[in-house]
Design brief:
homodimer, alpha/beta, FAD/NAD(P)-binding domain, NADPH-dependent 2,4-dienoyl-CoA reductase/sulfur reductase-like enzyme (chains A, B), Rhodanese-like_dom_sf (chains A, B), Pyr_nucl-diS_OxRdtase_dimer (chains A, B), redox-active center (chains A, B)
Amino acid sequence: MSSQPLRIVVIGGSAAGPKAAAKARRMDEHAEITLIQREPDLSMASCGFPYYVGGTFDDRNMLVCTPAGIVRDPAFYGKAKRIQALVRTEATEIDRVAKTVTYRDLPTGEQSTIPYDRLVIATGATPLRPSVPGIELDGVTTLHSMADADALRAVRDERKTTKAVVVGGGLIGFEVCEALRLAGIHTTVIEKTRQILPFLDPDLSKLVENHVRAHGPDIIVGNGVAELLGDNGKLVGVKLDNGTELPCEVAVIAVGVRPNVKLAQAAGIEIGPVGGIRVNEYMQTSDPDIYAVGDCVECTSLVSGKAVRAPYGDLANLQGRVAGQNLVNEGSARFPGIIQTGICKIFDYAVGFTGLSAKDAREAGFDDIETAIISGLDIPGYMSGKLLISKLVADRKTGRILGFQCIGPGDVSKRVATVAMAIRGKLTVDDMVNADLPYAPPYSLAIDHVISSAQVMDNKLQGRMRGLSASEVKQRVDAGADCFILDTRSPHEFEETRLGIGETLIPLGALRDRLGELPQDKSKEIILYCKISLRGYEGAAILDAHGWTNVKVMEGGVVAWPFAKEK
Amino acid sequence: MSSQPLRIVVIGGSAAGPKAAAKARRMDEHAEITLIQREPDLSMASCGFPYYVGGTFDDRNMLVCTPAGIVRDPAFYGKAKRIQALVRTEATEIDRVAKTVTYRDLPTGEQSTIPYDRLVIATGATPLRPSVPGIELDGVTTLHSMADADALRAVRDERKTTKAVVVGGGLIGFEVCEALRLAGIHTTVIEKTRQILPFLDPDLSKLVENHVRAHGPDIIVGNGVAELLGDNGKLVGVKLDNGTELPCEVAVIAVGVRPNVKLAQAAGIEIGPVGGIRVNEYMQTSDPDIYAVGDCVECTSLVSGKAVRAPYGDLANLQGRVAGQNLVNEGSARFPGIIQTGICKIFDYAVGFTGLSAKDAREAGFDDIETAIISGLDIPGYMSGKLLISKLVADRKTGRILGFQCIGPGDVSKRVATVAMAIRGKLTVDDMVNADLPYAPPYSLAIDHVISSAQVMDNKLQGRMRGLSASEVKQRVDAGADCFILDTRSPHEFEETRLGIGETLIPLGALRDRLGELPQDKSKEIILYCKISLRGYEGAAILDAHGWTNVKVMEGGVVAWPFAKEK
C-alpha cells in the first residue's frame, strides 16, 4: 500500500460519474475520491423521468434512491462509499500540467482548486434546442434534468394544460408523448424529417406511427418548427415551417443532445470525428491520466467499426465501471464498443432495435445486404400471444447478422436482447436458424420469432424466396404496375379486412386446383401474401414449381401493411 | 425436373415429422410425401397440454390447429400441403434393401407396404413408467398424448378428484402439478432423488421447492414410489419407499421418456451412446437415405461436445426443418447441435436454464469452473420490478460462459434467451460484462441482470470477491464453524426478516466506524451479506482493505437463502 492515497476526481454526478467513483472505491478503499456535480441531485435515474411525469409512480425519491430506499445524497456518498460529493458545483477548468481541477460552488460563487492523480470527465450531454423565435418562452422545456421532470410532473398534477407539442420524433420524444397523453393532454409530435424513430426502417416506423395515432396523439412528419408563439412571455402555440399553427401551452423539445466537451476541449483533450471526447478501449482520453465516460464520449460500433455517439444510460454505467477499475489498476478493464441497441415503450407497443437498420447498414458501407421482414405471435395463440413485427438485416456474402428491429405489443425486449447477443457473438444466419432458446408455451412459440426471422432470411439468401416490403408493393400499385396480386387467406379473413389493392383471393388450400386463374404469361410478376405471409410463401413455392418465374412474397403480410386497409 | 417424383415417407406425425414433411413439400412441389402417424391427431402442440388441463384455455382444437384456426387433420395436409397423412397407422418394418416401409392400419389391422427414396424416422419417445405394482390401475396416467390430455382435462371438468400425486420432479412434473392445483386438486410431487429439477444446482432448486409449497402443493424428495394402491382396479393411493401412504385418486407419472428406437434398431440403423438414434449434422442416420428427427434421436452438446438426449418440442421443429431440406437437397442444411436450454412456468416463477449447471459442468469434464449467484430486480423498483435469482457458470481458465440458471417471478425467459445466445457465440465473461442490451425502465435495469451476473463473475475471476453459496454458509453454521457472520443491511430490514444464524448487524454506512466490533484475529473467516449481497460485497472490499484476510460474501443475499428465516 502506498503511503500517499490515490487522488481521484470525477466531474459529473449523474450516471457514468458516480459509477466510476463507486467502482474506484471498491477497487481502492484508501483513495481520496471527489465527485463534482453541477445539479443538486446525484445519480438520477433519468431514464425514469417519463414514467414519473406520466404517473407510473408518484414518489420522486424513487428516481434518486438505492434499491434499499436510501436517497443517494452527499451524506449517503460520504457514509456508504466514502466519496466526497459536491453538488451545485461546477468544474470550470482542468489544468493538465498542474493536474488540478478548478470548480465553483454555484450558490456562493466561491472558486476552489483540487489536485488529481486520475481524473474522470463525465460531463454528459445537453439537449439541443432549435434556434427559433420564442425558444425562451415559459412553457417550452426539455425532459433532461430533474428540474425538467419536476416541471412536467407539475403540469400533470395541476391538470390545467390541455394541449402540448413534442418537437422531435425520436425515443425521448415518444416517451414524453406517452407521458403527456397519460396526463390527459392532447399531444402532437412534430418531426422535421420524413420519418419518426430514425433507427427504424420506414415501413416499421410507419406502423408505429399508426399505433400512436390510434392512442390519440397526432404526428406531423416532414415539417419543422418555425416559431414558438407567445403571449405575455407564455407559450400559446407552435408555428410549423409550412405555416400551420398548433395551439398549445407546453412544448417539449426532444431533438437530440450534443456531448458536453467544452471543458475537455479547453484542456486540449482530443475530440473525436463525431464530436464526442475520443477514448480508447480503456475509456482513457488522449491524456492517459484522464478518463471520460457517458454521454460526452464517442464509442466504437462493433458492427461497422465506425465512431458513433450513443448517449444511453446503460452504456454510461458500463463505461463508468470500466473507467473506475482502470483508475486504480490501469489497463485492467476494457470497453470494446457497442452494438447500438435500444428500446422504448410507446403505449402498448415496444419498439426496439440492435445493430444497423438497412439504411444505416448501407450508409456504413455494407453494400450487399439482405433483409427479412416477418410478423408473428410471441407466444402461442392458445396462451394469448401478442404480435411482433420485425426486420432482420444480414450481410449477404458472409451471412453475418448486422441488425434487427422489432415492434409490437408482444415481448419485443426479449427478442432484441437475443439478437443483440447474436450480433455481439458475430453469429451468422446459419447459426441463428437453429438457435437453442428457452421454449415453453408461456414464453415462446416452438419456433421463436427470432428463429423464424432467421429462417425467412435463410430462405431469401438461398434463393428460395423473393420478397417485397409493403412499401415496395404499394409503390407498384400506386404506379399502376402490371402485376398480379394474390391473397392466400381464407374467405373469412378476406371478409374481415383486405388491402384493397386489386388483389385476387385464392385460399392456399385451393391454389393447386385454381392455377388456371393465374396469369398465363409465366413471366408476369405475381405478389403473394396472407395474414403474416407464411401461407403466401407456401403459395409462392407452388407457383415457382409450376413454372411462373417472377413470383414474390409480400413480407410480413397483412399485419405488417402500414397503409390504409378496407374493412 | 426428373420425370420420376421423389418418394418421401415420414414415420411419425406429432412435431418433427410433420415439420420435415412440410419443409420437403416447400422444397419440392412434385415429391410424393406420405406421413404415417399412429395417433389419431397430427402435429399436436403437446407442450400446451398442461395449459389445456389447467384451464388456461378451453378449446381443445387450439392444440391441433394452424395460427389461422384450421385443424391440421389429414384433409388439411392433403389440401394445403399435398401430403398424404395416414393417421391411426403404425409403421411396423423398414426394409432398407427394398427401400420400403410396412405399416398397419390400426382400426382394420390391414397391412400395406410403401416404397421410399428418402425416409424420415420421427417416432418420438415413450414416457417411462416405474415397474411397481399397481401401475396399470385406473387413475394412473402420463401427460404425453392427446388422449392423456383429454383424460386429465376431464378430471378437471368433473370436479370429483380431490387429491393427486405427481411422480417425478422434473419440468413436466411441475407443469402437471400446477395444472392440477389450478383444478383445485391437492397435489403432492414425489421425487426419488434428493432434489427436484435436476438441471438446476441445489440452492436454486430448493428456492423453487419453497415457492411451490407456498402455493399449496407438497413435495417429497429422496423417496420413490414403491406401490400404487388400488381398490377394485381404481387408484386410491401411493405408497412410498419409506412406507408412507398418500391417498389420491389420480397419479401422473412424469419420470422422463425413452426414445422410440425399436423400429430403427430392427432395421439395423445405428443407435448412439445415450440410447437415441445416432444422426450426423444433416440429421442423417447411419443409412444415408434415412433421416431421424425429434425425441427419438440424440444430439451433440455444443458446450461439452458430448452426445445428449434433448426431447424438446422446439428442437424437434428445428431438426424437422433441417431434415426436410436435406431430403430434397442433400447436405444443404445443418443442425450443428444444442446448448441444452429449457424453461418452465411454476406458479408465479419461471424456471429456466441454458448450458451446464455446475454439477453437469464438472461431470462433463470442466474441472476448473467458477460460479456466481446473484439476485436482483428485472426492471427498476419504481416500475414494479420483480425478483430474479440466477447462477452463472464459467470456465475459469478461458472465461468462457458454460451455463446459466435463472428463477423467480421476474422476466426469466429473456435472460435465459440472452445467455443462450452468448453461449452459442462462445462468448466469455469479458464479452458479457459490457453487453449492449436494450435498456429502458419498462424492460430492464440500467445494468441488466445478466450483465450484473457477469460482473460478479468477473469480480470473482479477478480475485476481487470470494463467494460462498447459501448452502455453504448453512453447512458452516450447522457444523458450528468458527466464523463471523455480518449482515450489512439497515436496522429496518433486519427487523423485518433475518437469517437467525448468529449474525451481527452492522449497516454498510456504519461499517468503517465500527471496525472495532469485528474479530481482532484478522485471519478469522468473515461472511458478509445483505438483501442481495451488493452491500455485502462493498463491505467485504472495506474489510479486505483493512487487513482482514479471509473475507467472503454470501452470494445472492437474504433473498437467495433457501432455508428457514426468522421474522
